[in-house]
Amino acid sequence: MQVHGLGHVVLKVRSLERSVPFYERVLGLKQVGGFPDRMTFFSIEDNHHDLALLQVGEAAADAPDDAPGLAHVAFKIGDDLDALREAKAHLEACGVEIVRTAEHIVSKSIYFADPDGNQLEVFVDADPKVWHENPGLVATREPLTL
User: Fold this and answer.
1) Has this prediction a pTM greater than 0.85?
2) Which residues of the chain have pLDDT under 70?
3) Residues 48 and 114 occupy one common structural domain
């Protein structure tokens, strides 16, 4: 078997009523369908869907930090620091708390959470030549000042 790409990610949320506006307003994702009161699908650009939210109910417990499972989902927003600075200003204007920023050499990132605590990342890529020449740089994480 040969994997050709990542198709989509499904995140569990307590309330679609609360989460759908967050993903539309904060991340600018386009809602493309779903099942009422159960699941909503989003498209980033021209794919049928890239992200889905699965409603699990308000009583759902948080997953422990040390439990196996998804750590975060990353969204590419551009290729330069200006795009990341604009994203930071947008997140702050939306009242989203920034958890951290990071210099990964191969990319630069901002980390934050959705209303249910699902960890999200927005990032900009560095010149691909950097990681083509030294793939190990992907394991770099240093503070980033924006």
Assistant:
1) yes
2) none
3) no
